[in-house]
Design a protein that fits this description.
10 strands, 3 domains, 15% strand, 6-stranded mixed beta sheet, 418 residues, Rossmann fold, 42% helix, 4-stranded parallel beta sheet, alpha/beta
């Protein structure tokens, strides 16, 4: 008797459409780069990007973010795809949308609407492993939801019938359960938020106790944009097995390891990466994770030099550091991924000035070296290029700091070379 075969249908990957604006402050190149990043975020969250729409506007339309014509175009595209049996799962916007915008766009397009923030929160929720990270993510999600609650209850708004002389849609005496439900939701969420804040305060207390007990060691923190290779570097320096992956926000929790270079022990921590257009309340929720950075004695600012826009990424990180009150700390710029660096060679007879794309690695090195003196170094964590030089540099800086901070502490381990 032949066995019955089961047909296992493959899980459908959700498809996504991206929407961005070209504005006065953001030219086309920048918008495309932001959309590249948004596509990478969508992939990290497990969606596949099938199309992008951009529109030139002075500023985002307060009602529908894009203009009416563009919204119709997107609607038409979704309809055509559905007729061809290619379901569009969601439309992702590159900027944060207000409740009103989400409501209006949803009413038009009738698919799931996400913005950059909700997408990042989704990835955070997926990545959160420890109690601390989960609590922080949950708090950030509630903060995001609060102003956008109303749209969850639109189905309860009842049409008011004609009442009294006015006729038409009166609202007095006809306020449906939608209102009370909304207030209840708000109260539930606000209670939950204060509970989470208390829990985070507890965790903060534990963490600071842990930090106090770490003894007389210099603390070095790895900071940088997301996906620049902090965890990979951490693994090399600390010979540890920290989760590292070519995805955005692979690390949410701070990992601290004790590292010994030559005869000098110090603490190295790996922190969550930063990203452009990150809303401030999200940064607030990650306060306890970022305390590690705040209390560090030395920052290793890791930069992905193979990224076309690495200079802007450096600015984003510096700005975020200033926001959390960690600006002005001793810092070493670590340019990573030199193995992936590419440039466009200029023709001999081309006399136009060189653009960013035409700079060779050597050019970049000399300009940054001149600017930063001995506070910058070029490495490849994957190929282990210049790793020894990095260790020497870190050793030198940590040793200087150590002698200043703990002058009478006999910190040097015996070296094991003899």
């Amino acid at each position: 008797m032949a066995m019955k075969e089961f047909v296992i249908s493959e899980a459908q990957v959700e498809t996504a459409v991206l929407v961005g604006l070209v504005t006065k402050t953001q030219d086309e190149r920048k918008t495309n780069e932001y959309l590249d990043e948004l596509a990478f975020l969508a992939e990290t969250a497990g969606a596949e990007v099938v199309k992008r729409f951009t529109q030139k506007l002075d500023q985002a339309n307060s009602v529908t973010y894009v203009g009416k014509g563009k919204l119709d175009e997107i609607k038409q595209y979704i309809k055509e795809e559905e007729e061809a049996e290619r379901e569009i799962g969601m439309v992702i916007f590159d900027d944060e949308l207000s409740a009103k915008q989400i409501r209006n766009i949803e009413a038009e397009l009738k698919v799931k609407i996400l913005d950059r923030t909700s997408l990042i929160l989704d990835i955070f929720a997926m990545r959160a492993q420890t109690a601390n990270a989960k609590t922080q993510v949950e708090l950030a999600q509630y903060k995001y939801m609060l102003p956008r609650l109303q749209r969850l209850w639109t189905h309860l708004e009842r049409q008011g019938g004609g009442s009294g002389a006015g006729g038409g849609k009166g609202s007095v005496g006809l306020r449906g359960p939608g209102e009370t439900q909304l207030e209840m939701d708000r109260r539930i969420i606000l209670n939950r938020m204060s509970l989470l804040k208390e829990r985070l305060a507890e965790i903060d207390k534990q963490k600071s106790t842990q930090r106090k007990n770490r003894g007389r060691l210099i603390r070095v923190a790895l900071v940088g944009y997301t996906n620049v290779g902090k965890s990979t570097l951490m693994n090399l320096l600390a010979k540890s097995e920290v989760f590292a992956e070519n995805k955005l926000f692979a690390t949410l929790d701070t990992t601290v390891r004790k590292v010994i270079i030559d005869n000098l022990p110090f603490l190295l921590s790996d922190t969550v990466g930063f990203i452009r257009k990150l809303p401030t309340d999200l940064v607030d929720s990650f306060k306890s994770t970022l305390d590690e950075v705040r209390e560090a004695d030395l920052l290793l600012h890791v930069v992905d030099i193979s990224h076309p826009d690495f200079e802007e990424q450096i600015e984003v990180v510096n700005k975020t550091l200033a926001d959390i009150g960690a600006a002005g700390k001793p810092m070493i710029l670590v340019f990573n991924k030199i193995d992936a660096y590419t440039y466009v060679q200029k023709a001999e007879d081309d006399l136009t000035p060189r653009t960013k794309e035409n700079l060779t690695l050597e050019d970049l090195m000399s300009t940054w070296m001149a600017k930063m003196e001995d506070s910058c170094i070029f490495i490849s964590a994957r190929e282990k290029t210049n790793l020894e030089e990095l260790k020497t540099l870190v050793y030198k800086r940590v040793r200087e700091l150590h002698v200043q901070k703990y002058p009478y502490n006999d910190f040097l381990y015996p070296t094991y070379d003899e």
